[in-house]
Amino acid sequence: MANQKFIYAATTCVILLLGRWLFQAIQWRRKYKLPPQVPGIPIFGNTFQIPASQQGPWAKGLAEKYGEITWVFLNSSRVVIDLMERRAAIYSSRPPFPMTQGIMSRDSRIVLMPYNDQWRSVRKIMHQILSARSLDVFMPFQDLESKNLCWDYLESPDRWWSANGRYANSVIMSVVFGRRSSLDDPHVVELFETLELFLENQQPGVNLVDAFLVLDKLPKFLQWWRPRGNAIYEKTAHVYRREVDLLEEKIKNGTEKRCFGTDFLLTDEVKKMTEVQKLFVFGTLMEAGSDTSRVTIGQIIAGAVTSPDWVARARAELDVVCGHNAERLPTFEDRPKLKYISAVVKEGFRWRPNIAEIGAPTMLIKDDEYEGYKFPAGTVFTWNAWAIALSEREYEQPERFWPERFLNGEEESALKGHWGFGPGRRVCVGWKVGEMNVWIAIARLLYCFDFNEVPGKPIDTMTIPQITKNSAPFQVTVTPRSEKHAALVRRDCEAAVKTQY
Ligand code: HEM
Predict the structure, then answer these.
(1) What angle is formed at CA 130 by the lines to CA 444 and CA 348, rounded to 5 degrees?
(2) Which of 40, 163, 267, 400 has the highest CB neighbour count under 10 A?
């Protein structure tokens, strides 16, 4: 009898719960209207459909099939501008990432922070160091380090990829920590390793808990991903802390060189931060400042090898300004006369968006309506970088590396005409520094070196891997344009290599 009562009560409960769920689902469907959804599997939805790498081509296919907006992906500049830029106040937050932000970054990585006061205060600090006003601080280092880059290309051509990494890293290390990095610097290698660990784990589907937030509610001892996340955090914090300790040691001994770090460590802002927050400000600058430029320079080299026609036009411009016989290296002062180089750099950012192939996800913080759709707060959006960059509706001959498309009087507006740095309020805070890193490096490399395919190793520019464990993502032969160009590099760049601080 008691058993029967229990079964009756349990069945009633289940029916009531199901009824409530059904009622809520109907209400939800009445209230919201979402764009066409990509069919997924029950419970897991599309989680396992997103490839771990080469997401760009995959998402481009979806954009062609599903139109201007799909669930999550914004597939045209028009909708990106309408939502991410014009309605930035509600489209600039991030969804929670319990593994990559919570455990691996102790909630301190700016790029994954929700749109809140913590984000605002870290962004302000980053802005102070990376904004247009600080460019005079960066320029001498970019000049020196790009001379070192040319030297490395001449002396160790097969290490061109490591040379790109050293170059970009050394610019930011000089400004932030007052020290240079060398080609074989084990600290640089380790920094790139931690960055790749972060990028790997940030790929959709790699950490189930980042897609199914309910898993985060499991008791900590049942969270099987937690020990791995903690180990990655420890490694990352160690790499960051090593540099900060070194700087603090120099300050204590009075041997420091004045830099952003020495000033920052004395500010009130830093006193309000926890130790971990402080480490992640320094660490993010090192990581974000290094990888992005090395990748973009590599990408433009791939463009030079696979469609050499534009290289001839870039050289013609460089030769007029710097001499047909390797008279001198291009400099920042030449910029007004080197519009084509600025267009090459913009085309490099557009051509194969590689830092964020499918954009970076942002979370809507308030219900919103757009062109007949009704989105609930919490909807995740991303600008579909590859799909937009390679869409014929956006660009003529989109797959061609064709700098001429940017010879439109806006060569110096580095953000205009592409989404390489992202849209709206989460736009890359280091865009100007990054653009200048790439500009001076590319101007000098194109003036001094030829880039050719390695026989039997063609470059497939649609599938250049993003995460390469510190090895070059494709092969290329690097040779000086002529003996005179080699002599110019020897003459003008040796002093840069010998400079120490
Ligand atoms: C050279 C080229 C660079 C490219 C292509 C690039 C690209 C990007 C992209 C696509 C984003 C995400 C934007 C979004 O979420 O909508 C981003 C964010 C960011 N970048 Fe860059 N970046 C570059 C250079 C740099 C440099 C030199 C630094 C600093 C030294 C830097 C620091 C950051 C930071 C801190 C964020 C996070 C901003 C936030 O969430 O508010 N970037 N970058």
Answers:
(1) 40
(2) 163
Q: Which two tokens stand for residue 192?
A: 């790139």
Residue 423 near residue 79, CB atoms below 8 Å: no
Structure tokens at 40: 């997924």
**pLDDT of 19 higher than 90:** no
Q: What is the rounded CA–CA span in Å between residue 52 and residue 304?
A: 28
Looking at residues 435-460, what average pLDDT do you find? 97
Task: With CA atoms as reference, report the closest residue to 368 among 87, 116, 114.
Answer: 87
Nearest-angstrom CA–CA distance, 233 and 373: 40
DSSP assignment of 294-305: HHHHHHHHHHHH
Q: For residues 459 and 305, is the Cβ–Cβ distance under 8 A? A: yes
pLDDT exceeding 90 applies to what percent of the chain? Answer: 71
Please give the biggest Cα pair distance in the chain: 102
Alpha-carbon span 39 to 252, nearest angstrom: 60
Question: Is residue 344 within 8 Å of residue 314, measured between CB atoms?
Answer: yes
pLDDT reported for residue 29 = 74
CA of 427 to the centre of ligand 1 (A): 7
Q: How far is the CA of 111 from the centre of ligand 1 (A)?
A: 8
Closest listed residue to residue 466, CA positions, set 97, 50, 46, 56? 56
Give 239-244 contacts, CB < 8 A, sequence gap 24+: 239/187, 239/190, 239/191, 239/194, 239/283, 240/279, 240/280, 240/282, 240/283, 240/286, 241/279, 242/187, 243/173, 243/177, 243/187, 243/282, 243/286, 244/278, 244/279, 244/282
How confident is the model at residue 25, as a pLDDT?
67
For residue 402, report the phi and psi dihedrals to the nearest 5 degrees. -140, 85
The backbone torsions φ and ψ at residue 110, rounded to the nearest 5 degrees and listed phi first, read: -55, -40
- Ligand 1 atom nearest the C-alpha of 425 is 41
- Pairing mode, strands 373-375 and 449-452: unpaired
Residues 6+ apart with CB under 8 A from 387: 56, 59, 60, 62, 63, 64, 73, 75
48-52, 140-144, 260-264 — which one is most confidently predicted on average? Answer: 140-144
So what CATH class is 51-498? mainly alpha
For ligand 1, atom 6, the nearest C-alpha belongs to: 421
Q: Which ligand 1 atom is the nearest neighbour of the CA of 293? A: 1
Arithmetic mean of pLDDT, 164-173: 95
The structural domains of the chain, with segments of one domain joined by +, span 51-498
Give residue 32's pLDDT band: very low, low, confident or very high (50, 70, 90).
confident
Give the per-residue pLDDT at 39: 64
**Whole-model pTM above 0.85?**
yes
Residue 428 labeled ligand binder: yes
Which amino acid is located at 194 in the chain?
T
CB 492 within 8 A of CB 329: yes
The token duo for 187 is: 């600290």
Provide the residue count of the chain: 501
